[in-house]
């Protein structure tokens, strides 16, 4: 069977998945809003499609699998805004559809653990937009939807090393604050595992095993580089952008057992320590 993945918003995480699938003979079509992204999309093994400028209907009708990583905003989900009827029409022909959401839909839990059964109670605008988009995608009849709630993403080109090297990194400390993280290669392997074991309606938290204070991650990055650890700065004294400050408004530990028990995933980078070590080795 010919397998075709149509990827809406073919960015960092989607490109990691296409690098896994392309060598297996998949046809992958990745949408983007700007030709400047064509080279990166092609490098991942996908064919770029300028959308919404170009006709999406033939790729949509040919798709056996669909990935949505284009993010919503205050006006709603950008893909559904233009294509809900078309997607609903082809839904029965799809084997698998994946929506990349965020653990931000859980809101703040004062450092307690959450899992996929935890009620969705977003406390930020971005979390609310994602929760609404999840519900809208889930309402499409016949769509074999899988929702992936991603923790903070890092990987090649995304990590603390650049700021640590420049001396601009800060170890911002807020008492009891932890964040969950996930390496982009582990996102790709979770998605690939789900494609092999489809379970429409499933929701998966995609994060590593070690929710950790952000200042510890920065300190470990400095240690790996052989540089002094940046000084600690109190969260209340730090001059943060509104977006950066909003991240600290939520504090939770995210469980990931379902990706292991249902999908058989064994994380390549179970904590930030392994992930950062691999990044500094590859740099």
From TrEMBL:
InterPro entries tied to this protein: NAD(P)-bd_dom_sf (IPR036291)
SUPFAM superfamilies: NAD(P)-binding Rossmann-fold domains
Domain of life: Bacteria
Record's keyword terms, sorted: NAD
Record-linked PANTHER family: EPIMERASE-RELATED
Protein name: SDR family oxidoreductase
